[in-house]
Specification:
The chain is built from 1 helix and 3 strands; from the N terminus they run ββαβ. By secondary structure, it is largely without helices or strands. The protein has one domain. A 3-stranded parallel β-sheet has the order 1-2-3, with helices on one face.
């Protein structure tokens, strides 16, 4: 569980944490989100930085969010409405 952290950068290796269920990226800028988020097969809850609109996120991360939502991952911030 990575919640309420003050991380500013997330390494690509985070995708190897196969048991990770909760991840808080609220303190991380969208350009520092790793595309390997899609490898987190056990992820249930992802908190993202609500200071940015979906369009502000890199396209690869937008696609990762869509895939995670299709898997049933709860993505929380004020942007949740944008993930249909």
């Amino acid at each position: 569980m990575l919640i309420d952290n003050k991380l500013q950068y997330i390494p690509e290796d985070i995708g190897n944490l196969s048991s990770l269920q909760y991840l808080d990226l609220n303190s991380v800028s969208p350009e520092n989100y790793p595309h390997t988020l899609i490898n987190l097969k056990s992820l249930k809850d992802l908190r993202i930085n609500g200071d940015f609109r979906l369009q502000d996120y890199p396209e690869i991360i937008q696609e990762a969010f869509k895939l995670l939502k299709r898997r049933g991952v709860e993505i929380s911030s004020e942007l949740v409405e944008s993930f249909h």
